[in-house]
Design brief:
The chain is mainly α and 194 residues long. It has one domain.
């Protein structure tokens, strides 16, 4: 045997058993999903009293909004209610983030009240991710886009709504912001600040 060479014993490898590799891959995905699913969206025994309390839960707020966005309404309905309750308490009480609900958003969600929550959550997510953005138009666009996505993905959970279908068409044609903008300048904002 030459110096520095690998012995024949180590040179031959057994071929990878594809069945075992696939099973290992599937198991690792399932395990990762279980671990991720166990992460609490809603903090246990949380308190919302000071600005610091609210700031510490921002990651939970963002994760909760994403969970709502990614989870069909027909799945885990009890957990959905718990997550929505946490989010509303946080949004309502936070001293540094205000969600102003314009009349058009109230009207648009009139036939499907849960869509107002979608608007609020989309608006909130945008404001948390873009803290220096002060333009109400872009926050409203984010809220309406969240509402539209909830409506289209969970259409079986909602009543068919021609007004929302019109807004979806506006979004598809790139005219959503153009439609929202004059409705923000009406000056008669509903004073529902969360």
């Amino acid at each position: 045997m030459k110096t520095g060479s690998i012995s024949d014993k180590h040179r031959t490898r057994k071929p990878i058993n594809m069945k075992n590799a696939v099973l290992l891959f599937i198991f690792s995905l399932l395990f990762a999903g279980i671990v991720k699913a166990q992460e609490p969206l809603v903090p246990v025994n949380y308190t919302l009293q000071s600005a610091n309390d609210y700031r510490q839960y921002e990651p939970n707020v963002l994760a909760s909004i994403q969970w709502l966005h990614n989870t069909p309404r027909s799945i885990e309905t009890a957990k959905r209610k718990q997550v929505e309750d946490f989010l509303l308490k946080w949004i309502y009480g936070t001293p540094y983030l205000k969600v102003v609900i314009e009349p058009y958003a109230m009207k648009l969600s009139g036939n499907n009240a849960d869509l107002l929550l979608s608007f609020i959550f989309g608006y909130t997510e945008f404001k948390l991710k873009n803290v220096t953005e002060s333009d109400a138009l872009v926050a409203n666009v984010a809220g309406i886009q969240f509402l539209i996505e909830d409506y289209t993905v969970n259409i079986s959970s909602f009543k068919k709504d021609a007004a929302i279908d019109k807004v979806i068409a506006l979004q598809s044609s790139g005219k959503l912001a153009e439609w929202i903008k004059p409705q923000l300048s009406m000056g008669n904002k509903i004073q529902a600040e969360y």
